[in-house]
C-alpha cells in the first residue's frame, strides 16, 4: 500500500504507478507458509521528468511535440498498443521520405513452391504496396516508388546465392554516416535465390522483401513470430501497425535516436541462425 495515493498508487498485484511529483512511503506485507508476517517499508520519491529527455520531434513551424502527446497516445491506444509493443528502430534514416528503388541487371525469375513464376520487380511492387498502405495509415509521408530518369534510386534490389549469404533468405546492406546515422549510399537488398527459389510460397517471398525493406527503414527484429520483423520468414508473418508506428517514430525523432535510448525497446537478437 501507499501512504499517499496522490503520489503513488499500488494495485492488487503490487504494480507501482506514479501519479504526480512528491514523496510517499510504500509498505509491503507478506505472510510465509509458516504464518510469519513480514513487513517491508520503502520511501518513494516521484520527480517530474525533464521533457527534453522524452521522445520528441519538431514540426515545420518549430513547435516541439513530445511523443507522449495526445496524438501519439491516441494512435497507440486506438490499436491497443504501448511503446513496449513497437518494433525496435536504429535511428538510421534516408535523406528523403520518397524512397526510389531500382534493380540490378540479370536477375533470375523466381518460382514459388507451387510452381508460379514471378520476376523480382513484380514481387517488390507487391511488397512496396504493403508498406505504402501501412505507412499512409499512420500518417507517415514515406513512400516507395520505382526510380525513373529524373530520380536516382536510393534502394537497389538484387540477388545472391548460398555461397554469398548462407543461411539467409534475404539480406540488407546499408552504408550510413556513423555520426549522423544518415544513409549516404543506396541501400542494397538481396534475395538468396538458392534459399527461396522453388522453396518459398509467393506470400513468403513477399514477406522476405517486406522484412528487408523494414530493415532499410531502420527497424530491427521483434520477438513476435506473427510479425513480419520476426527473424524467420513464414507465410503467417504480417506487416502490422506496430511496424508502421515504429517507422513513424524513427523518422520523426532526430536521426540517430534509437528505440532503446528513447522508449526502452531493445532489438531482438535470435538465439539461432536467422533466415531473414
Automatic annotation (TrEMBL):
Domain of life: Bacteria
Keyword Hydrolase: yes
Protein's UniProt name: Peptidase metallopeptidase domain-containing protein
Occurrences of domain Peptidase M10 metallopeptidase (ranges): 200-233
Keywords: Hydrolase, Metal-binding, Protease, Zinc
Coiled coil: none
Organism encoding this protein: Paucilactobacillus hokkaidonensis
InterPro entries, per database record: Big_2 (IPR003343), Invasin/intimin_cell_adhesion (IPR008964), MetalloPept_cat_dom_sf (IPR024079), Pept_M10_metallopeptidase (IPR001818)
Keyword Protease among UniProt keywords: yes
Domain BIG2: 2-37
